């Protein structure tokens, strides 16, 4: 059996070199990207009479979660044999379906502890499967419903696809078994209730992820009406439509809802007190959602967003660093940057777990604490750009809008409720620079 598996593993990696295969030992789990055929129990009556099953298998101190295919070994070269019920045999490829993703477990380097392995098992079984009597190391459970039908038929509307977060969501979408509808402001005017409602009904939307926002912080000081329309009134529309149609709603907010005078990381229920038009309109949007209170909806506050897409601090520093010998950067504004790809991944990972009778608020940024000066220094260091960075105070760089001097976000709640790990800011910056082709 080990020999068969090793041969299959080598072939799989050769064919799909771009797919990550997670290695494993005791209490580790191997997952792979699913194909269209996620597998069915074989009962000899043809595909229409087959049931999808979750396979739990352990041998040689190795643990597997997989989906058996319908074909026999002669028809599919990626198989190993296992018993799925007493005196019955089947053949399986260890295919990942996104529901059984290691993202649901707390892990490092693909490894998972016994404690979190048990927790993962418990969540999976509770979520979609009915346990069978345990027979040694044979099948653990049979799914209640067709997995493909349950998850491939979920329709998700993502607004603001051209923004940093929207672009990252689109980039990652191929890794998830949902039907995505990515829209721009030209395709859907979210400030127009009828326009949004019509789209929602015609496309039978189940989930809305609002990645749209008016983010020109300084410009908002003189463009109050438009900032309010996008950050407040449009959000109110989406919340009301979500409630009326029983749609799950995920909205992205900001650290600018705080005034930045705290002395410790902000938790979700700390007092808000925005000191800019941008911050005020974003808070108004939050309050509109909470007042309407669509079920199964969350607000995620984030900070210092950057990406390989769009205009942001990282890309600006790279450009200026290559054009100039010296730069001055503010050192007395402290917080944590957020790689939009990390945030996008978390949003897509936690979608099945979002269940509540009231709107929940969460904080999310990368781990760590630094100033804009520290951030700029590290960008130059990683990109090996020879540009001298000097620190200055906020008062030496006046802007139309006030920024929080301290906006560190406490992420304990989102980590606890969704059992996630958050990358350290330097690791995420490194990944972004690699994507941009700037890591040297």
Short description:
The chain has 440 residues and is α/β, with parallel strands linked by helices. It has 12 helices and 20 strands.
- Give the CA-CA distance, first to last residue: 44 Å
User: What is the CATH superfamily label of the largest domain?
Assistant: NAD(P)-binding Rossmann-like Domain
Gyration radius (Cα, Å) is: 24 Å
Number of strands: 20
- Net shape: globular
Q: Approximately how much beta-strand content do the residues carry?
A: 15-25%
Question: What keywords describe this structure?
Answer:
alpha/beta; single chain; six-stranded parallel β-sheet; disordered N terminus; six-stranded antiparallel β-sheet; Rossmann fold; globular; 33% helix; 440 residues; 2 domains
Task: Please give a structural write-up.
There is one protein chain. With 440 residues, this protein is of the alpha/beta class. The protein has 2 domains: 2-145, no CATH class; 154-436, Rossmann fold, CATH 3.40.50. It is 33% helix and 19% strand. The chain is built from 12 helices and 20 strands. The protein has helices at 2-15, 114-128, 147-152, 164-172, 193-202, 224-244, 277-292, 313-323, 340-350, 372-383, 412-418, 425-436, and strands at residues 53-59, 62-68, 80-85, 88-93, 107-108, 111-112, 129-131, 141-143, 155-159, 179-182, 207-210, 248-254, 297-302, 305-306, 326-330, 334-335, 338-339, 360-363, 370-371, 388-392. The strands form 6 sheets. A 6-stranded antiparallel beta sheet has the order 3-4-2-1-8-7. Strand 5 and strand 6 (111-112) form a beta hairpin. It is globular, with a radius of gyration of 24 Å. Mean pLDDT is 75; it is low at 1-112 and 124-151.
């Amino acid at each position: 059996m080990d020999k068969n598996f090793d041969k299959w593993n080598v072939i799989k990696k050769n064919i799909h070199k771009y797919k990550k295969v997670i290695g494993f030992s005791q209490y580790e789990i191997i997952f792979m990207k699913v194909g269209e055929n996620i597998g069915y129990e074989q009962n000899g009556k043809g595909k229409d009479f087959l049931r999808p099953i979750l396979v739990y298998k352990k041998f040689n101190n190795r643990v597997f979660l997989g989906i058996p295919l319908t074909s026999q070994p002669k028809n599919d070269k990626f198989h190993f044999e296992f018993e799925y019920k007493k005196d019955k045999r089947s053949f399986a490829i260890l295919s990942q379906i996104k529901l059984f993703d290691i993202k649901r477990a707390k892990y490092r380097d693909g490894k998972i502890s016994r404690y979190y392995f048990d927790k993962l098992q418990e969540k999976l079984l509770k979520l979609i499967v009915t346990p069978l009597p345990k027979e040694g190391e044979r099948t653990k459970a049979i799914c209640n419903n067709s997995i493909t039908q349950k998850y491939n038929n979920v329709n998700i509307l993502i607004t603001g696809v051209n923004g940093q977060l929207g672009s990252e969501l689109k980039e990652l979408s191929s890794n998830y078994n949902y039907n995505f509808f990515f829209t721009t402001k030209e395709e859907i005017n979210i400030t127009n209730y009828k326009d949004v409602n019509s789209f929602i009904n015609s496309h039978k939307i189940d989930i809305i992820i609002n990645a749209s926002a008016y983010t020109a912080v300084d410009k908002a000081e003189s463009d109050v009406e438009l900032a309010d329309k996008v950050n407040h009134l449009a959000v109110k529309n989406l919340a009301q439509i979500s409630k009326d149609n029983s749609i799950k709603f995920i909205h992205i907010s900001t650290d600018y809802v705080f005034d930045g005078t705290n002395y410790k990381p902000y938790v979700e229920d700390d007092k808000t007190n925005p000191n800019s038009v941008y911050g005020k309109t974003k808070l108004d949007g939050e309050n509109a959602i909470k007042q309407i209170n669509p079920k199964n909806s969350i607000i995620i506050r984030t900070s210092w967003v950057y990406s390989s897409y769009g205009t942001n601090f990282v890309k600006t520093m790279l450009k200026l660093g290559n054009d100039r010998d010296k730069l001055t950067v503010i050192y007395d504004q402290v917080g944590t940057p957020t790689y939009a790809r990390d945030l996008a991944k978390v949003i897509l990972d936690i979608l099945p777990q979002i269940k509540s009778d009231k709107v929940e608020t969460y904080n999310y940024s990368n781990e760590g604490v630094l100033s804009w000066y520290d951030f700029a220094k590290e960008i130059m260091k990683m990109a090996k750009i020879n540009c001298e960075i000097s620190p200055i105070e906020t008062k030496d760089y006046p802007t139309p809008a006030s920024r929080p001097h301290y906006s560190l976000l406490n992420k304990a709640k989102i980590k606890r409720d969704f059992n996630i790990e958050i990358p350290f800011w330097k690791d995420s910056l490194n990944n972004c620079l690699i994507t941009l082709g700037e890591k040297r």
